[in-house]
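hiii so um. not sure if this is the right channel but i have a protein structure encoded as tokens and i wanna go backwards to a sequence. like what aa goes where. can anyone help
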């Protein structure tokens, strides 16, 4: 649960950072960025899965990462249409945001996975 909350906050921070760095992205506030992060997560879990599966079948699952980035960019553009105070002008900025979100969530995920391994309390037996 804590990993989900941290991942959501990091995603909102990345969206704000991309709005600051890219002139074609506009976000009004951190609350808007948090709402967009939640919406992108929901859209990726539902509509994104429906888009990813046939695209991965066509590419024989060889370009799974590229397909995931493209579908996430499409979900970002869909969130742009649904949220009033969030605007992404163009598809390339959506791709850049998708890459930044993928990198950030990978770092959060690997950080929590490393913590789980070191604090699990398991003792390794040596024979």
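sure thing!! here u go:
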């Amino acid at each position: 649960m804590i990993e989900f909350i941290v991942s959501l906050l990091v995603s909102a921070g990345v969206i704000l950072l991309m709005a600051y760095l890219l002139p074609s992205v506009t976000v009004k506030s951190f609350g808007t960025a948090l709402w967009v992060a939640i919406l992108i997560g929901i859209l990726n879990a539902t509509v994104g899965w429906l888009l990813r599966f046939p695209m991965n079948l066509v590419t024989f699952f060889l370009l799974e990462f590229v397909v995931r980035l493209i579908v996430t960019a499409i979900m970002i553009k869909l969130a742009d249409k649904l949220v009033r105070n969030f605007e992404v002008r163009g598809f390339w900025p959506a791709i850049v945001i998708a890459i930044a979100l993928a990198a950030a969530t990978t770092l959060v995920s690997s950080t929590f996975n490393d913590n789980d391994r070191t604090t699990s309390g398991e003792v390794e037996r040596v024979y």
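oh and The longest helix spans residues 30-58.
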